[in-house]
Sequence to fold (1406 residues):
Amino acid sequence: MTNAPTPSLAAAKQEPGSALGFYGVWLLAAIALIVLPLIFSSGGSLTSFCLIGIAIIFALSYNILLGQTGLLSFGHAVQYGLGGFLAVHVMNAVASHNWPIPLPVIPLVGGIGGMAFALLVGWVMTKRAGTVFAMISLGIGELVASSSLILRSVFGGESGITTDRTSLMPMFGWTFGPQIQVYYLIAFWVLVSAIAMYALTRTPLGRICNAVRDNPERVEFIGYDPHVVRYLAYMFAGFFAGIAGGLTAINFEIANSAYLGATQSGLVLFSAFIGGTAYFFGPILGAILVTYLQLGLTSVTSVWQLYFGVIFIGIVMFAPGGIAGILMKHRPLIRAGTLGTVIPSYLVAAIPTLAFALGIILTIETVARFSGGDVINLLGIPFVATAPTTWAAAAVLVVGGFLVARITWRRVAEAWDRAATVARDRGYLA
Amino acid sequence: MTAAIQVNAVEKSFGNVQIIRDLNLNVAKGERHAIIGPNGAGKSTTFNLISGHIKPTSGEIRLNGEVTSGLRPFEINRRGLSRSFQVTNVFARMTVWENVRCAVLWATGHRYAFWKNVDNLPEVRQRTAQILDDIHLSHRRDVPAGLLTYAEQRELEIGITIAGGASVIMLDEPTAGMSHAETERAVALIRRLTEGRTLVIVEHDMSVVFGLADRISVLVYGHIIASGTPEEIRGNPKVKEAYLGEEVD
Amino acid sequence: MAELIVISTLNGVLFGMLLFLLSSGLTVIFSMMGVLNFAHASFYMLGAFFGYQLTRWIGFWPALVLAPLLVGAVGMAVERYGLRNTHKHGHVAELLLTFGLAFAIEEIVSMIWGKSPVDYRVPAVLDFPAFTIFSTNYPAYKIFMLVVSVVIFIALLVTLKRTRVGLIVQAALTHPSMVGHLGHNVGRVFMLVFGVGSALAGLAGVIAGPSLVTQSDMAALLGPILFVVIVFGGLGSLPGAFIASLLIGLIQTFAVALNGSLASVFGPLDPSLGPSPLTDIWNVTIAQIAPILPYLLLVLVLIFRPMGLLGTRES
Amino acid sequence: MRKLIVAATAALTVLGGAASAQETIKIGYIDPLSGGGASVGEGGLKTFQYLADELNAKGGILGHKVEIVPLDNKTNPQESLVQAQKAVDAGVHYITQGNGSSVGAALEDFVTKHNSRNPGKEVLYFNYAAVDPSMTNEKCSYWHFRWDANSDIKMEALTNYMKGQPSIKKVYLINMDYSFGQSVRTAARKMLGEKRPDIQVVGDELHPMLKVTDFSPYIAKIKASGADTVVTGNWGQDFALLLKAAADAGLKVNWYTYYAGGAGGPTAIKQTGLENQVFQISEGVPNSGNKAAMDFEKDFRAKTGISVWYPRAVNEMRMFKAAAEKANSIDPVKVAAALEGMKFDVFDGGEGFMRKDDHQFFQPIYISSFGSLADKAKEPFDEENTGWGWHIVSKIETDQTMLPTTCNMKRP
Fold:
């Protein structure tokens, strides 16, 4: 009993493949970022990629709070916006003094701006977690956003402050006028920030953040002050949010008070949560999806925000782990090789679910366009909002889809249980 | 030699209700000290006072001679005291391995470091692995703590408590709710892991108490009515009258 | 000046009472269920729009009764089919559910009633000046609003003191852990409390709609102020919510009535200094910063007295 | 349906890549189509689509069809830039926008930078309603043309009218606390001081924008000040609620406004019964007496269900056509050159011109008041079914609206 055998020491060693896998993933990401604009070379896709890249950094920075440390913030845009403002001011100063500072350094300035604000207010804000933190973050958010309209000399009122990214000294012959150069600048920072934020989760601080999230009380009894942990996490989140803000400033060459507002704070919460806060890559998926929806949905429907709300509610109620949570649920099944037994039931369930979703869409669009008289074009079929046939179709799809979907999802659950049992037997599930 | 724990004339009230009255307790270094008493006597409150979870209304608490009353729990922990909880209190979403590792980090001097890769700290790794071995949870290292069985969670609780290498260990009913066999295993574990350290334990199971403790203090209505070796306590008429007579046959 | 003070006090108390109609429900819901309901102001908005629609169909007085009931029903449905299912995922998930709901309700309302203010008028019976003070008219409808708020306030007090549910609610306010001991009725009590809280918000909407503006952004405008009120007063404290409501109502109204700025007190800054944050702060009037005062208060209170004015617990 | 197809094709082209040959002239309409400003943005969109149809019915511009591409900016400058970029990526060379000076400033900056970085792919920004004076002064751009009179010009015209009204003795200024409101108050103080030094400014209020739900405290202050006239740039709900509170408190003053005619405004005036006490300054009035304009108004109302709120948009589109024909090209660079200094007969009659120095359009400006319409034959148009309508009180000729500019135009 006294001398335990040593197999656990062997188990404590790093799995040999993991380091390779680790670098491999980032290498692949780097290659993808380089190649992406060569495949989708139109100006439109380039614009989208830039926005998505910034959104990824922003959402990941938010997840340092929500996912890693368990802090629900309703004012994360404050750091993002202040980072953007600082970046713009520094860019203007650099340009007017002809300082030898190239543009790619500027996001770092944004990061410092975001971090500086976090440093200033963070100690008081992070005294408490939970609802109190959420409320303070909301209050600080509103306070800063409103104050920005009063402090015109710094924030430039509603029009904001403009800058010219090409007025800084060129680097390697790049002036950063063309969007493609900005894209590579953003891509570089996305990669660096993502690696840095991932690395942060693998540090002692990162691990203790998780502990604070799970059980702040117990953390106090293993030597840590949860307040300090939250404060540090808040500063790091502020830093990376500031980088995102700085990149936005470079991309749009403007910073205005809308950067700081509740809409931005809400969007980043949506992104992180829809993507899934429990996994590092969750917010990345969320940022891509939300930005894409934001760009795409707005040209298709005027009530795009309602779809956001509905998707968000759906995720909260039925998949609180977000997209990443859904995906990762399947990992043990894949490893155990039992995923195949679930897929047929998925396919069966997909049909009524899709019908249900289409019914919801049709209902929403019918109401939205009832007075306008626009025709709804759903899967190429035109529906007239004022026609009873449309209402009937919507009702049939919603009610029928719901009833059938309920049955089919029960079958999915059964199939899932069988597959999970097998997976458990094979040792892939706890 | 200074005592490991010294509690001098501590009082604690919640509103108008006084829970702890004139509490005096001395635990010598290296001693295994059990606190017993009927339900509601204030045993957990005493633990909470000593570990800094709550602050005394008046009086003074010393750890290894240094005044600790008024300090925050993490400050007391850093001075060498670690405690467990009666209700399992682990990091539910983190794996067993991570639970123990988190408890090792401060003591190994890594603190709030954000420039070190936690997987590349050999000392932390070895110590964590050693503790997992000690608490027989090596085979469960990658399981989230929330999914462990009850007995396993109790063992993990002890593992987290001792992981930091504190010189004073306080265990709050470590065997509560365990089967007989599990209890035996846990007692052996505690005995081995607290070798050379000071142990303060609250326990209801008298066989555990009398088998493990060097000294015993009896707490009744927030006041220690007797303190001594197991034999002394057995023979103490006050204890018999107040408590033992009903509880231990 | 005297006229300004009287009018502002009346307006401030009125706004404060409206805030209390909303914050009382929010406080009770939070105390019992641990959920900070982000959609509470949305129920207020629903009340205003239901009131508007029903007034057009069946007249103001039936709408005054019916619309809050409808809103209460919506609230109960939200509790039964939404929150109850989300409970197992924790309070953050519940909070986020109401957050998403607030978002969706705003969109649905603007989809149905449009984004411009709707023409929700004061009923003709009450459309006259109640009294004239120093040649300024005070509308009768505002007096009516004040009366309704006070009546509801008293009814609420009586309900809390005299009825069984009231006693349960009171117990829950002081000892949140007690709620767990309600037994098998807990679900029904929650649903009821949520329904009543929503209905109160709805009632506030019905009576405030004609006087203030009935528009799809009214929830978003009021929502954050509500949180300020209940956090400021102390989470879980009804008297605290009452005092905070009145205080914030009065502060908001009086800040508008005051003209002071640092420049008016200490004289203008030397113009040679040029624009800087200092000149911005120097020249801003109290009226201009009126809308941010509540948030300033919130932040200060949370720093110096995290439990709020009369609160007993921190979160 | 049209809108949907247009939107869908816009979305497709954004994803699909460069636009095809310039068969149609696409005009990117960047204004709020969702969120708080949507009702205003939808009105503008209807106007431009109507005008595009009108042009297309007459053979388009130099044979090219005109197409309006609606782009939703949610009144957010940053989102506007995304949409502008999207439009440019889809091959749009003309963008038009009006709501929000902050958006306008951002777009002006955007076109300037874009055009200097992408020679040969120039984009012109036609501004139909953003009235911040700085856009044609210190921030002016060669690629920006403004058809609306900026707020200083309007104030110049308004004070030129007010100086002839001896009954005005005490003026109260109340404005929304943002750049437009601030330029209104600054200009009002300055110009009133110069033209009528005897007028006392008894109050100068800035209130939070679109956040006040009850204006009665402000009304109490106005009342206490003893003002006989209120000058306000308020619009939307901030105007309607202001009037509502004034009527509740029994405040009897004259109102000089910029945007009383905006959505909800006429209803509010009618409700409060302030007949002929609310004045508006604008570059056009439905009951202008100009036959062509009134025929247009009639047809426009029949087809869109709204009144012509943007005569300047009519000027913009028609002048665009004239400039393209003058240049005999739809190349933005050539159109811009043709527009500079161009004279044009405006919608309600009279001559206006696009000043070369700052690309600000100057035109006759009208002061009108809102009240019941005595002669339905001469003044057939009411507003928002109130039975009341605007009638002209005074016409300020183009030369009475001229203000110097500080613009230092950088020409390519």
Observations:
- Residues 1-21 of chain D have pLDDT under 50 and may be disordered.
